[in-house]
Amino acid sequence: MDKKIISIDKDLEDLVPTYLETRKKELVKLKELLNQNAAAEIAAIAHKLAGNAGGYGFQELTDIGRRLESAGKASDKSLMTKEIENIAQYLDSVEVKFV
Description:
This protein is mainly α. Helix content is 67%, strand content 10%. It has 4 helices and 2 strands; from the N terminus they run E-H-H-H-H-E. Helix 1 (16-35) runs antiparallel to helix 2 (39-52) and helix 2 (39-52) packs antiparallel against helix 3 (59-73).
């Protein structure tokens, strides 16, 4: 898998590793919620993700969060599954460069 190199302001260097680690834990929760067909809870988590990822420089994660929120609101399990997998792939491939 190709790495996604994201340039982020050096001022966020202390915060970004914790932010990404929290998203990985959140991913586990999203998968659990998907298995429980808890679309509303998935949409709520996705809404927060869409709102905070861009502030850390992860615009693609914001976009995924928006799509996941819409899928959750529509209770579209197929699309929720796809977007949760997109989060997993993103987190596995992202590499941060502080500038």
